Protein 1
Amino acid sequence: MVTVSAPAKVNLTLNIEGRREDGYHLLSSVFQSVLLCDTVTVSLSEREGIHLTLSDPLLPTDARNTAYKAAQLFFETIGQPPAVSVYVEKRIPQQAGLGGGSADAAGVLVGLNALYDAGLSLDALCTLGEKVGADVPFCIKGGTAMVTGIGEIIEPLPAMPVCPMVIAKPKVGVSTKEAYAAVDSKKTVFADQDAMRSAIADGDLPRIGSLLCNAFEQALAIPEVEDVVRCMKTFSPYGCAMSGSGSAVFGLFRSESEALDCKEVLLKSGVDAVLCAPAPLGAQVVEKG
């Protein structure tokens, strides 16, 4: 049995740069792993096949699930018939822009690689992950990175300084398809990627917070997201923004007490909120037995 911690991600910046001929959107975004994570456990099974279960019974357990797809690809790659059980303890909310499905796929690939002593390199795992979803390679590598292309080009950046974070998910969800349709039809202000790189390199949290920028947040203008942002700003964070295609919002705070106060107010208003922090790595084996 192998247990893997599979962190979520937030987007400190996110620009949509255009579209390829095959319809995939090109982006440039600074990704940051966070301590909010799902836990993926893989173990050998006496039954043939891939047997996926999740703590959320509403989620699919077949090839519609990224964790299942990742397992299929792994066994095709090593040329061995599957006989494995996969359990995913979900903590990362759905339709939030936090990469929950991608994190689970990353966790499965890392876990199966360890369980079967397959010896696949990090880059080989990322190549497999790219076939499952654009964010999976980053969720395997993690940390702080500039991500371009459709998500497959990952340039590591210096680690973001540690600070208290609050991640809040309004009740409303956002489909990725709807988000891209909105951003295609509206002009958005571009994030200053060079300035964000410089701020991260300098460890300048106030500047990092001031440079948070997300094209989807501007294009979608979701009232529930705007309400969360307004609430967070009353606690004087370094900055706050929507992550990915939404609808989760994250804030970077000066102190844990301010972050806790913000979290409590959001919870009382009916918004799911957790205290969090940046994470230095992506999917990692935490137990092997």
Protein 2
Amino acid sequence: MKEYKSGFVTLIGRTNVGKSTLLNLLVGEKIAVIANKVQTTRTAIKGIVNRENSQIIFIDTPGIHKPKTKLNETMIETSFASIIDSDVILFLIEATSEDIGKGDRIILDKIKESKRKAILIINKIDLIKRENLLKLINIYSKEYNFEAVIPISATNSKYKNIILDEIEKNLKPGPAYYDIEEYTDQTLRQLAEETIREKTLCLLQDEVPHGIYVETEKMKQRKTKQNEDIYDIEVTIYCLKNSHKGIIIGKNGEMLKKIGRSARIDMEKNFGVKVNLKTWVKVKEDWQENDSIVGKFKLK
């Protein structure tokens, strides 16, 4: 019988490189927010993959970017802190890069410093020619002794087992840290918040979503008259300006209804029960500099 292995794998890369899409593919559940905008992931989300002979715990980190607020600084701190604690690093870069850019260079230097086992994942290979890909592989292979270099398209499930097999190969024998039925350590409250934030990212104008902070005020399970389980969830969406509040609510409250409806459908699918969702919008101008709020985004 094969020896059981386990370990923590940090998924790191620049913003919008496809980390959350890849995490959801590997875990097989939608736990990370996906939106075609930068700085989508704010906290280090754990995704758990249970295989026959291993348990792989993924940490999806916030994308590396130039910090402008206390929140941004905390996000980057979280990304780099998780490198030190990981058994294997999955370093995700874009196939369209022609050389090692500034952001990728910073990450690469942190990986070198850590001396951890690392796997280079080159995403979005459908966008380039083979000779460009080979050049990129050559550039990165000279920089660090990667355990493997895997070119992929994060939306294609055929790469899932290739990556998981390679990770498993590089893990040490160890116990299952989480129940084998679990796929994330996020609470239902956090999942509710992330789902609503994803909908704001997808549905709103560029500058508004990144100034949004979502907080679950109430989450209670009860039975309906038909004896079905239902969650009553009350959520507040905080934003930075009054003008943003108007955009989030929309004309006659239409945008807020759209966000709520879309989030509720996803929650019901993820939670496996009916959801009664109520949303409010409030202005909190300085929340990105507020220590008690920003502290929630630190790696625990």
Protein 3
Amino acid sequence: MAITQTQLRSFLAVFRTGSVTAAADELIVTQPSVSAAVSALSRELGVDLTERNGRSIRPTPAGEAFVPYAADVLGLLEQGTRASREAAQVAAKELRIAAVTTAGEYIVPPLMQAFSASHPEIALSLDVGNRERVFERVRSHRSDVAVGGRPPSEGVLGECFLENPIAIITAPDDPLAGKHALPIEELGGRPWLLREEGSGTRTMTEEFLAAYELRPPLLTLGSNGAIKEAARAGLGVSLQSRLTARLELEVGLLATIDVSARLPQRHWYLLRPEHGPLRPPVEEFLSFVRSEGGKALERVRLR
């Protein structure tokens, strides 16, 4: 079987963009070359990997099944190339970090600052997105390590390293904020503020409401900052990591509602690809977070 990197890259670009034209633009090649590469890959595998869907192209069931393997192969080859160049000292050491939005805003920056102080020779980069984006970047080896919630069952390994306390936040003048062990049903008629689709915080909130059979009005907002401002303005309540609202709670710009229902139990995880060896910069970062990194985060939380 003579599968090439060009065929794999072309197929994955078509999968991501949904069209040969967009894939060609992404790869900076001609449309016929993309079509030829995907067709050649299909012939090598003996199955059709894509099919027409109106004016766009979508993967067939065979194509869907092949995607994670193609991404894994390309990712491992890229990692191997990077590792060999770093070992030969012809390329600078690099660590690509990904993080879900909350972790990217409140956890990873102090980790990067502390890690860089002791490892200035390693160049760091950070990609922040929702849960789905982060898991896909790790699974495909486009990020070396990530910080997020509990990982899915395949493709990503997770190591719990920090608690993530959850609270229901509300406006500081909310009359329910001063009560103790409030029945959760009393919040069933209140608007609840949610993050966007694909957010782990949104999924957590939806599962929490479903568990208590609550069907409140929902308002979707695209960031933690927007949710905090909406809650402060009295537009609704929200289930949030305490870390996101720490400062606002300390100075009285937000308040919490104490309910008798058990709030979700969450932790932060170090995430890495399931397959392939880890390059030395990745090993060094993981070792740092397990030791000094945790202490650095605790100092930040206690400021």
